[in-house]
Amino acid sequence: MAAALRGALWGCLLLCVSGIVPKPQNARINSVNFRSILLWDPPGVYKGNVSYTVQSKSNFPKQSFNNVTTNLNVTECDVSSLSVYGTYVLRVRAEWEDEHSDWAVVKFKPMADTVIGPPSVNVKSESGTLHVDFTGPAADHEHEKWSLKQYYGSWNYRILYWKKGSNKKIFHPTGSVWN
Ligand SMILES: *[C@@H]1O[C@H](CO)[C@@H](O)[C@H](O)[C@H]1NC(C)=O
Ligand SMILES: *[C@@H]1O[C@H](CO)[C@@H](O)[C@H](O)[C@H]1NC(C)=O
Ligand SMILES: *[C@@H]1O[C@H](CO)[C@@H](O)[C@H](O)[C@H]1NC(C)=O
């Protein structure tokens, strides 16, 4: 009985202590063409100036958690430098003086999760012929802009076009093309 009570009290103490700083809310990844940002909302009603630590861990190949950044004073962190071929667990916690919140956790697999942006398209009509040039999309996480195709292997473009005011769309598949 006494032991159970002590247990319950101890549990409450632990909860109360670890709950001093609420954890960041709504942690999520925004990734387009491999430019990848971890975003979160500040912990609910907390009044002090909290800072954040972001850590990442690769699941494949297996690693332990590493600091991506510490002492961060904004609610986003660029994680584009992680290898696009990896599988990761990212986590962020709020810190205030010597206290910290629990971790908010997000899984991230860049190849699968990044949104592939549209190619850029240039159309020219010349004596009844339509010329359509398109390039990209390109990876947006390094100084050199590599085509995303370098990462994904082959892909095709699909062109749909129609006469202005008409509902009849013409579909034009292209073969496997470069860039
Ligand atoms: C939060 O930081 C700002 C700017 O550094 C400071 O003016 C303010 O007093 C701080 N607030 C608290 C509650 O510490
Ligand atoms: C992360 O940074 C904190 C604060 O600088 C440090 O105490 C901790 O040991 C670091 N953790 C790792 C895994 O490097
Ligand atoms: C946030 O951190 C950056 C870089 O560490 C610093 O330049 C900036 O002044 C800080 N902003 C606030 C509001 O403390």
Automatic annotation (TrEMBL):
GO terms for cellular component: plasma membrane. Keywords: Signal. One of its GO terms (molecular function) is interleukin-10 receptor activity. It holds the Pfam family Tissue_fac. It comes from the Eukaryota. SUPFAM superfamilies: Fibronectin type III (SSF49265). The keyword Signal applies. Residues 1-19 form the signal peptide. Residues 23-114 form the Fibronectin type-III domain. The keyword Signal applies. PANTHER family: INTERFERON/INTERLEUKIN RECEPTOR (PTHR20859), INTERLEUKIN-10 RECEPTOR SUBUNIT BETA (PTHR20859:SF50). This is Fibronectin type-III domain-containing protein. It comes from Pavo cristatus (Indian peafowl).
